[in-house]
Amino acid sequence: MSTLMPTYGRLPVAFARGDGALLYDTAGRAFLDGVSGIAVTNLGHCHPAITAACIEQAQTLVHTSNLYHIPTQEELADKLVAATVFERAFFCNSGAEANETAIKLARLYGYQRGIEQPQIIVLEGAFHGRTMGALSATGNSKIQEGFGPLLPGFIRVPRNDIAALEQATENSHVVAILIEPVQGEGGVHLISNEFMTAARTLCDRHQWLLMFDEVQTGNGRCGALYAYQRLGVAPDVLVTAKGLGNGFPIGACLARGHAASVLGPGDHGTTYGGNPLCCAVANAVISTLLEGELYARAEPIRAALLNAFQAELDDAARVLDIRGLGLMIGIAPACRTDELVRRGLEAGVLLNIAGGNTIRLLPPLVMTEMQAAELGHAIATLINTTPLD
Questions:
Q1: Could you tell me where the beta strands, DSSP code E, fall in 158-295?
Q2: Rounded distance between C-alpha atoms, residue 241 and residue 250, angstroms
Q3: How far, in Å, CA of 124 to CA of 50, rounded?
Q4: Of the candidates 270, 231, 238, the residue with the CA atom closest to the CA atom of residue 252
Q5: CA distance to 152, 246, 313, per residue, from 249 (Å)
Q6: What stretch of H or E contains 83?
Q7: 255: domain CATH number?
Q8: How far apart are CA 360 and CA 267, in angstroms?
Q9: How many domains does the chain have?
Q10: What whole-number distance in Å separates Cα of residue 256 and Cα of residue 234?
Q11: Are residues 302 and 351 in the same domain?
Q12: Cα 130 to Cα 151: distance, rounded to the nearest angstrom
């Protein structure tokens, strides 16, 4: 019996090494990675710039604490501020922690305005993490079951329902709106520009904070450094993680305007967050993404994958929908998906199912177009050979 708590239904494979878009198991078999560690290894496995940054920093200093200045942390904050609309950054260890930071920031923002019971508008189908605040903001009753009582202070509206969003203005306790530009765990659903524009307008009108959860959509995954830059609606607060460290545990909460000055000494903290090692790696990640605009690779890879997929598909009726943005790709087949991940593993490709019935593809930016086409062909073959519901 395993000594690990059984919190994951693990697949029967263990990986020993990686190279770009490929992973190799302990027997040496190669697998084409369409998951990227769940949108984490955006630069692929063992990227030379990331490996070099890790080795160099690990040989000098790994940890001190946030009681002292950390030059690599300050450098990373400067890079993120220079590349975005934001003014300040707080570093933590994960996406859930970054969302907890944003939730605390929004509540304190409301308290400073005289609102003692602040409310945050969140969306149905959202996923913000598994810590208690982030879990309470999440729109998935299945993963919330058994962990009540959840935190109060969240108003849920359907995604892309502008009328429901406007109706929430009747609540005088609202202080913020929290949105994933693309709902990843919820099934790869893109939030419409109309909805996000309406959210920005309402936040400006009522002095609310517009907050984007870019844990999955950020760090080049959607064809820009952050998805908001491609979509044309800028938030006041942005949370990111996953691809920021390309596998190293680091998250960030970025803020501008009034939101940038809400948190002060003693209001929030972290022991490991923003340590010299993780920040050195994240600096290498951001520099690599910005050099030559590597994030622009998202669209050619997406096109190669989907063109090959559609060319190999026996019947268009086998697919109900294809959605997403950049290298967040959701394919909703008309067949059952419960065996597709296992069968994909047998075929040498790594897949993921999100939202119950959507194949979620999150390939790395370093994937070649030939590899993308191979992945598309493999997925089409799996769907072609699965009986329709």
A1: 174-179, 182-183, 189-190, 209-213, 237-240, 251-255
A2: 6
A3: 36
A4: 238
A5: 28, 8, 38
A6: helix 71-83
A7: 3.40.640.10
A8: 37
A9: 2
A10: 10
A11: yes
A12: 12
By CB atoms closer than 10 A (0-12, 13-18, 19+), residue 327 is buried
Distance CA 110, CA 101 (A): 14
pLDDT at 324: 97
Q: Kindly give the parts of the chain with pLDDT less than 50.
A: none
Give the span between the Cα atoms of 352 and 372, in whole angstroms. Answer: 16
Taking the alpha carbons at both ends of the chain, their separation in whole angstroms is 36
Q: What pLDDT is attached to residue 387?
A: 87
- State how far the Cα of 150 lies from the Cα of 167, in Å rounded to an integer: 24
- And the tokens for 213? 């959860």
Environment class of residue 197 by beta-carbon count within 10 Å: exposed (0-12), middle (13-18) or buried (19+)? middle
The residue segments making up the domain with residue 350 are 15-47+297-384
Query: Which residues are registered as beta bridge partners of 19?
Result: 22
- Give me the torsion for CA of 130, 135, 140, 142, rounded to 10°: 60
149 prior amide bond cis, ω within 30:
yes
Residues 289 and 302 in one domain: no
72 and 34 part of one domain: no
Contact present, 237 and 253 (Cβ < 8 Å): yes
Q: Which of 185, 132, 199 is nearest to 324 (CA)?
A: 185
Distance CA(246)–CA(53), nearest Å, equals: 12
- CA dist 144 and 139 (Å) reads 9
Assess whether 225 and 182 both reside in one domain: yes
**What residues form DSSP beta bridges with 177?**
121, 210
The set of catalytic residues is: 127, 213, 242
138: helix, coil or strand?
A: coil
Q: What is the pTM of this model?
A: 0.97
- Comparing C-alpha atoms, which of 230, 255, 262, 241 is closest to residue 110? 262
User: Residue 172, class by beta-carbon neighbours within 10 Å (0-12 exposed, 13-18 middle, 19+ buried)?
Assistant: exposed
Residue 322: strand, helix, or coil: strand
Beta pairing partners, 78 = none
Torsion of CA 368, 371, 373, 376, to 10 degrees: -130
Q: Could you tell me if 301 and 366 are in contact, meaning their C-beta atoms sit under 8 angstroms apart?
A: no
Domain boundary pick from 293, 318, 353? 293
Q: Under a CB-based contact definition with an 8 Å cutoff, are residues 175 and 115 in contact?
A: yes
Residue 229 is predicted with a pLDDT of 98
Q: Decide which of 252, 274, 293 is a domain's last residue.
A: 293
